[in-house]
């Protein structure tokens, strides 16, 4: 907390010195304490100039997703009020599950610079290289029946499509149920995992992976042609903390609306606006088999309606879909 307050004071005066005394007064701590925090910030990569009788001046900030960076300027009131950052982790979803099992509050965010075992659905891998993406998990505790859990993925997808469109100036689209694409390329995936008691949700962990500054050449060969990054779309790198803030700020009001209305119905139009699935010819791989046809609509429960090749309407509750 203290570090984010110091950073905030330095950032409010770009190019200028902030005196040690002003910091002591504002934060209610000693000069030695301020100096210690400045040292810590310098150790994590901030270039801060210290000049006797003038104070401190921020010269440059590294692209970090530490709690201090994310909190600085964050306007949410629920999401990200508690943030756990790790330089390296197996999967942020694992730590989030563990914290949720031990009572972590709703809105707790787990984020890492790098995942060694980032995962997608059905045991697939999610490539999560160091310092170039946002790999994070949010703990949610909606009081909803178990059957509603998949809708959280859809709500998250709306927020992500909005956030990534705002950040890049290019249109991001939702591929049902859990991918965000630019054109035909995937930039972001969502993995929602849950813990339930009887038929009520106990907690949900919403894992979000966003390729922010990943260089195209760095993607593994097998996903070179299907993956993209915000950097490639925008033609410029983006500060990762800003990406996190934008996502949390888009998601929080949608999540509140979802929980208050007890369902996906009122968000269906928002979803439709941001989707690139409806109207397309698709192949859907479901647990019951493969369905080929045209994606017609999404219903008020988030179920995908498909007209198959014999003209029959099918409901798809869960699947991997491909555009043909
Ligand atoms: P998915 O199963 O829909 O997609 C996984 C597939 O996407 C992979 O099989 C591969 O083809 C492709 N892929 C892998 N890595 C990338 C990448 N970086 N960019 C684009 N395509 C890729 C999607 O699952 C859900 C991903 C959620 C990831 C987050 S990160 C934070 C949290 N922790 C964790 O372990 N997972 C989630």
UniProtKB/TrEMBL annotation:
Its EC number is 6.3.4.15. Residues 20-39 bind DNA. Pfam families: BPL_C, BPL_LplA_LipB, HTH_11. Keywords: ATP-binding, Biotin, DNA-binding, Ligase, Nucleotide-binding, Repressor, Transcription, Transcription regulation. PROSITE patterns: BPL_LPL_CATALYTIC (PS51733). It comes from Tumebacillus lipolyticus. This is Bifunctional ligase/repressor BirA. Residues 68-259 form the BPL/LPL catalytic domain.
């Amino acid at each position: 907390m203290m570090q984010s307050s110091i950073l905030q004071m330095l950032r409010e005066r770009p190019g200028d010195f902030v005196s040690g005394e002003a910091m002591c007064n504002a934060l209610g701590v000693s000069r030695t304490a301020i100096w210690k925090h400045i040292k810590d910030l310098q150790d994590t990569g901030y270039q801060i100039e210290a000049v006797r009788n003038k104070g401190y001046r921020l010269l440059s900030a590294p692209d970090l997703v530490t709690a201090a960076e994310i909190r600085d300027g964050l306007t949410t009131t629920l999401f990200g009020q508690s943030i756990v950052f790790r330089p390296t982790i197996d999967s942020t979803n694992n730590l989030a599950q563990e914290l949720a099992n031990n009572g972590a509050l709703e809105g707790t965010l787990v984020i890492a610079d790098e995942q060694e075992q980032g995962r997608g659905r059905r045991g697939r891998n999610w490539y999560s290289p160091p310092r170039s993406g946002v790999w994070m998990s949010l703990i949610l505790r909606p009081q909803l029946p178990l059957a509603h859990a998949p809708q959280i993925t859809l709500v998250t997808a709306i927020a992500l499509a909005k956030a990534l469109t705002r950040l890049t100036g290019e249109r991001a689209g939702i591929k049902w149920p859990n991918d965000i694409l630019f054109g035909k390329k995937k930039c972001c995936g969502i993995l929602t995992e849950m813990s339930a008691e009887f038929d009520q949700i106990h907690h949900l962990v919403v894992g979000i992976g966003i390729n922010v500054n990943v260089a195209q050449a760095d993607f593994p060969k097998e996903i070179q042609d299907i993956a993209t990054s915000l950097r490639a779309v925008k033609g410029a790198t983006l500060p990762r903390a800003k990406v996190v803030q934008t996502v949390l700020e888009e998601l929080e009001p949608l999540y509140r609306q979802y929980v208050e209305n007890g369902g996906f119905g009122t968000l269906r139009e928002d979803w439709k606006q941001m989707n690139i699935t409806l109207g397309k010819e698709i192949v859907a791989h479901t647990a019951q088999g493969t369905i080929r046809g045209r994606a017609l609509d999404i219903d008020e429960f988030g179920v995908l309606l498909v007209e198959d090749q014999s003209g029959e309407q099918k409901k798809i509750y869960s699947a991997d879909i491909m555009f043909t």
